[in-house]
From TrEMBL:
Keyword Oxidoreductase among record annotations: yes
Keyword check for S-adenosyl-L-methionine: no
Domain Ketoreductase residues, every copy: 7-180
MF GO annotations: oxidoreductase activity
Superkingdom of origin organism: Bacteria
Keyword field: Oxidoreductase
Phylogenetic classification of the source organism: Bacteria, Pseudomonadati, Pseudomonadota, Alphaproteobacteria, Sphingomonadales
One Pfam family it belongs to: adh_short
InterPro entries from the UniProt entry: KR_dom, NAD(P)-bd_dom_sf, SDR_fam
Species the sequence originates in: Sphingomonas alpina
Homology family: Belongs to the short-chain dehydrogenases/reductases (SDR) family.
Coiled-coil boundaries: none
Name of the protein in question: SDR family oxidoreductase
Amino acid sequence: MADGVQQAIFITGGGSGIGRATAILFASRGWRVGLADVNTAGLADTAAMLPAGMVSTYQMDVRDRDAWVANLDAFTATSGGRLDVLFNNAGIGTGGPIAQMSFDDMDRTVSINLMGVLNGAKIGHAYLARTPGSCLLNTASASAIYGSAGLAPYSATKFGVRALTEALDGEWAADGIKVRAIVPAFIETPLLNSPAGGSNRSIRETVTGAGLELTSADVVAQAAWDAVHGDKVHTYVGKTAHRMAFAARWMPGKLRKMMRRGVGAAAE
C-alpha cells in the first residue's frame, strides 16, 4: 500500500514462470494484480494462488493492440484508475540455427518478443501517466548482453527490449514514469523444456550440462520488485547474467569464443 492506497500491477505472461512468481509476490505485499496471457488454464492456476479479490485475469495476445486497450481499460476500472506498474513480461523462446529456422517462427518471435513489448509501452503510457511514480518494467535477457549463438532472432528481440528500456528511461523521465528492465539468465521455467539449438536435448539439459546454474522464478520476482523500487535501469538476475555482464565489458573475446562453441546459447 502507498499512503493507504492499493497499488496495481498489470502483468503479461502471467500464466506461468516469472509472471506467476511476480504476481504472487506483489499480491502478498498488498498489490492488486491484473494477469494477462494467451493461456487461460495458466491464468486460472495463477489466479487460484492469489488472495481472493486481489486479481483480475485477461486472455490476451500481446500482438493484439485492441485487446491491450480493452484490458487496460477493464483493469484500471477495478483499481480506481491506478496503474503503478505495467510488467511487459510475455515472450517466447525459439532456438536453432537461423539458416534452418522457418520464416514463420522468426516472424512470431519478433512479433511477440519485441512488437508485443512496444505495443505495451506505447499503449500503456497513457495509463501509467495517470499514476505518480509509476513504472514500465520489461523482461529482457542475458541474451541481450551478448548475442547468443543458436538464438539469433530471440537475442535480437531482447537487445531491442534492452534498447527500448534505455530510450524510454530518458524519454519518459519528464512524465514521471520510471522505465526498468530485469535481465535474467537461465530461469527455472517451462521455457527450459524447449529444444535447444535444433538438437534432441532440451535447453535445460544444455544449460546444466554446461555447468551453468538455474535460478528460481521466485528470485526473479524479487528482482522485479527491486527494479520497480530502485534506480537501476537494468537489474541482472542470476550468476550467469552477472558473469556475462562482466565478461562483455572486460573479456569480450572470451564471450565470442564461448558463442562460437555454442555454449550458453539459450539465455533465459
